[in-house]
Design goal:
The chain has 40 residues and is an all-alpha fold. The chain is built from 3 helices and no strands.
């Protein structure tokens, strides 16, 4: 995905912003899962 965005935009910044967004969404998803669901 990063390579596609680099080819499309000509800059690495778009790929890095995409990765940042994915990491933030993942962190929010991890923090919103209740502990009871994880610790069965």
């Amino acid at each position: 995905m990063v390579g596609y965005l680099k080819d499309f935009t000509g800059s690495n910044s778009a790929g890095m912003y995409f990765l940042e967004a994915v990491l933030v969404v993942g962190a929010i998803a991890v923090l919103t899962v209740p502990a009871k669901t994880v610790n069965r």
